[in-house]
Design a protein that fits this description.
Blueprint lengths: L2 H32 L4 H28 L8 H29 L2 H18 L6 H21 L3 H74 L10 H5 L2 H7 L4 E9 L2 H8 L1 H25 L4 E8 L2 E8 L5 H15 L1 E5 L2 E5 L1 E9 L6 H18 L4 E3 L2 H17 L8 E10 L5 E12 L3 E3 L1 H10 L2 H19 L6 E4 L2 H4 L4 H12 L6 E6 L8 H13 L3 E7 L16 E4 L2 H4 L5 H14 L3 E5 L4 H9 L4 E3 L9 H7 L1
Parallel strand pairs: 6-7, 9-11, 11-12, 12-13, 13-14, 14-15, 15-16
Antiparallel strand pairs: 1-3, 1-6, 2-3, 4-5, 8-9, 8-16, 9-10
């Protein structure tokens, strides 16, 4: 039995219990009505009807239990047996109608006719076999039509015709119902097939999704590993180290953790001279050296845990967890050994590259409030201090370093507004003739008094201004203030202003100065340009020399400040149109047996070159007399005047 017929029979079987109930109720009802009329006939007929219904019920139960298993033996036999039981029930009713319609009174015949018509109409939609359904309808109604047609009464003849029409209508309705049911079953099968196909596709998609999820998890794990590793050295990166924070605290609470922050010295020069490709080689070799040192030392010193990371660029971090707090000698040995591990010579591109590093070290006891990022920030502060001291050295963090760092950060933040918030000011100190003490010029000295930070020394904020290029704005402010002072005075004076190397390195600096002088109607002879020895550094020498020459052509005197503290500038003095040089005050503060000869020799040499000599930092009459005897031309210092506002100095001059 194919699937479509199976569904049809399943639908028919769902209707069978109702049909059997109607059959029993109808039989019992007519038996009760007519049993007294013909006891023997109706007894036999009623028993026959109940037996047929019982047979039908037995076959129905058996057929219902096996209809869902198409491969069950005798399945067709049970189907035929059920059809036979239905036809037997039908024949039993046809016997009743044939017998009663012709012989009973009219109202009695009508009762039978109504029962037969009702059962025929109900059964017409319950059969899975179209043939059996039609046989049932014809068998039920044919005796009625024939018997009523044989009656001489016109009324019965009319009922016969109506019954025939009713029979034909039921046959047509049965056919349509059957076709509709088959179409419905066919559509159901198609939908079921589609659903099955979709279900199969869904299962296939689910399986594919499971594979994708597995691959995603696998790839996520791989990407997570990559995200925590530096692509160049395969060391942990910044994220990889910080990701270990909670794990370290959980396992080693109460232990001491150390952070060594390493920065390679002059690595930028390697990239600039050899290229980044060779710089990468140096980074990889340095990473291997640090990793090897950490692995060997970890075993030797019984460290609980160690991490090595490339923090970024040419910066590396080593994290160490140890059971006991180490003494300073051990910390010193640890830092020196680590610096020695990276103090290597690398053969790169047929050149020998020597690499050293600077190191900042910080430590803390691991508590639940410990923070690895804060510890590394402390180590970075110590590193910054180490690099300020020298190369290839280390420094241990302490709270004073953090306080100083915080102060510098505040100064740096406030510096951006210093030129516009009226916190900068100028004071002046006279430069006098060594013999007559007549004032030659006034040096403009920059002062900064901040509302919260108080008085900030130039030695604090000038290097910061140089580092972040704010010195350009500050230098222009100083120039304009000096020009404004000169423009307001009736008597001629000369003011010396300090010009930074960054200003001189600007290609248009001379033009900026010329524009400022024109705006205030001030002559170049009213100003002296003071530059430091750092202006003679190799990296800015050419541009600085060009700018200084342009200023000299405009009529400025050019002085060299802090002579003898920085670069060996004697060999370069002839390259600059220098009018005078200033001996640094260290000459006086560190005066020794050789100092007179050194100063006298310098003065003689500079005079032969046509350059005047100025000594600053003069605080006593004895120092002034000594320098005058050695041939110094001009003097400056507290002995003559303290830095003061210009109006005050002019009143006392």
């Amino acid at each position: 039995m194919n699937t479509e017929k199976q569904l049809l029979w399943e639908e028919a079987l769902r209707q069978q219990p109702l049909g059997m109930v109607v059959n029993v109720v109808g039989s019992m009802g007519l038996g009760w009505i007519f049993l007294d009329k013909e006891p023997l006939f109706f007894t036999i007929w009623l028993i026959s009807s109940l037996v047929c219904t019982a047979l039908r019920a037995i076959v129905f139960l058996k057929f219902s239990s096996v209809v869902h298993s198409p491969n069950t033996p005798y399945l067709d036999f049970y189907k035929r047996l059920l059809e036979v039981s239905i036809v037997l029930c039908c024949l039993n009713w046809s016997v009743l109608s044939w017998h009663t319609i012709a012989t009973y009174e009219q109202w009695e015949s009508y009762i039978v006719l109504m029962t037969i018509a009702s059962m025929a109409g109900g059964v017409a939609t319950t059969q899975a076999s179209v043939f059996v359904g039609k046989v049932y309808i014809v068998t039920m109604l044919a005796p009625v039509v024939i018997q009523l047609a044989r009656s001489p009464a016109l009324t019965e003849n009319i009922l016969s015709g109506m019954s025939a029409v009713y029979c034909i209508a039921l046959l047509i309705s049965h056919e349509k119902n059957y076709r509709f049911l088959r179409a419905y079953m066919r559509q159901t099968l198609e939908n079921t097939g589609l659903i099955a196909a979709l279900s199969a596709k869904s299962d296939e998609l689910k399986a594919h999704n499971r594979d994708l999820e597995f691959k995603v998890l696998e790839r996520t794990a791989e990407l997570t590993l990559q995200a925590h590793r530096d692509y160049l050295t395969n060391l942990l990166n910044r994220r990889g180290v910080l990701n270990c924070d909670e794990d370290i605290k959980r396992q080693y609470l109460g232990s001491t953790i150390y952070a060594a922050y390493i920065d390679l010295d002059q690595f930028k020069e390697i990239n600039a001279e050899l290229g980044h490709q060779y710089g990468d080689i140096v980074l990889q070799r340095t990473a291997r050296a640090i990793e090897t040192y950490s692995r060997i030392t970890s075993k030797a010193m019984h460290w609980q845990r160690s991490l090595v990371s490339r923090w970024g660029g040419d910066e590396f971090v080593v994290i160490v967890v140890s059971k006991a707090t180490e003494s300073r000698p051990l910390l010193q040995a640890l830092s020196k050994d680590l610096l020695r591990a990276i103090d290597l010579q690398h053969e790169v591109n047929f050149r020998t590259v020597h690499i050293t590093g600077s190191l900042g070290l910080a430590q803390q006891t691991l508590t639940s409030d410990s923070n690895l990022e804060n510890l590394l920030a402390d180590a970075a502060i110590a590193l910054h201090h180490a690099k300020q001291q020298s190369r290839n050295c280390w420094h241990l963090y302490d709270n004073a370093l953090r306080d100083n760092t915080y102060r510098l950060q505040k100064i740096n933040a406030a510096l951006a507004h210093a030129c516009v918030d009226d916190t900068l000011s100028l004071c002046f100190q006279p430069i006098v003739d060594a013999h007559t003490h007549a004032i030659h010029s006034y040096e403009a000295l920059l002062r900064w008094k901040h509302a919260q930070l108080g008085d900030i020394a130039p030695s604090e904020f000038i290097p910061l201004a140089e580092a972040n290029h704010l010195i350009l704005e500050i230098g222009q402010w100083v120039l304009e203030q000096c020009c404004a002072h000169i423009a307001q005075l009736t008597q001629p004076i000369r003011i010396a202003i300090n010009v930074s190397t960054r200003q001189l390195a600007q290609a248009d600096f001379a033009q900026q100065v010329a524009d400022t002088l024109q705006r205030y109607q001030v002559s170049a002879q009213s100003l002296v340009i003071e530059l430091t020895e750092s202006a003679m550094a190799d990296n800015t020498l050419q541009q600085t020399r060009s700018t200084v020459q342009a200023l000299q052509h405009m009529g400025f005197e050019v002085h060299l400040d802090d002579f003898g503290t920085g670069y060996s500038s004697l060999s370069r003095l002839h390259q600059f149109p220098i009018t005078a040089i200033k001996l640094d005050k260290d000459f006086l503060q560190d005066w020794g047996e050789q100092s007179p000869a050194l100063v006298e020799g310098t003065v003689l040499m500079l005079h032969r070159m046509g350059i005047r000599v100025i000594a600053e930092g003069v605080e006593t009459e004895q120092q002034a007399q000594r320098l005058r005897n050695l041939g110094v031309d001009e003097l400056q210092g507290f002995w003559f005047a303290y830095p003061s506002p210009l109006p005050t100095l002019l009143q006392t001059a």
